[in-house]
Every structure is written in structure tokens, then in C-alpha cells.
Amino acid sequence: MAPIGKITWRKRAHVEGRVSAIRSAPSNATPTVEVEIWDETGGVTLQFLGRREITGLEVGSQLKAEGMVGENNGQLIILNPSYEIVI
User: Does residue 65 contact residue 83 with C-beta atoms inside 8 Å?
Assistant: First the structure.
């Protein structure tokens, strides 16, 4: 598991952090959910394509995620990661 602040573009990352924001695309747009997670070293956006919600996920939840790190408008993102909600 890597600290979020240490992940790099075009590398696989396995991260864990607390959900600080959840954004869904408007109903007239392509379905996407963006989930922002943070740990003590930084934050990253997880982007789930083809979805409008993630059941059981709320702001404040602890989340583990794994996937390829990409970039969108200068921000690091992990696109369609595998994930686990940590209780």
C-alpha cells in the first residue's frame, strides 16, 4: 500500500484513504462517479465510468483502491479502480 502523496502517473497504485467528496455526473451526461480520497500525505480522485452511484459509499468512509494512475486536467486520477470499503 502506497501513501497517496507518493503515487506517480502511469504506475499501478494501491492506496487507502478517507472519502472527502463524491460527485456524480448530471443525469444528461455520461454516467460517472468521482470519489476523492485523502490520507495524511495527499489526495487522489477515483473515477468510475458507467456508474451513477456506489452503493454503501459515503463521505467519511475509509476506502482501499487499486488501479492505474492517470491524469486529468493536471490532477492524478485512478480510473475504474478495484476497491473495498473498509469498515
Answer: yes
E strands, 25-74, in order: 32-39, 42-49, 62-72
- Give the predicted TM-score (pTM) of the model: 0.92
Helix (H, G, I), strand (E, B) or coil at 6: helix
Tens-digit pLDDT profile for residues 13-29: 999 999 999 999 998 99
From the list 3, 16, 83, the residue with the least C-alpha distance to 47 is 83
Q: Which residues of 7-19 are buried (b: 16+ CB within 10 A; e: fewer)?
A: beeeeebebbbeb
> Do 75 and 45 form a contact (C-beta atoms < 8 A)?
yes
Whose cell is 467519511? That residue is 60
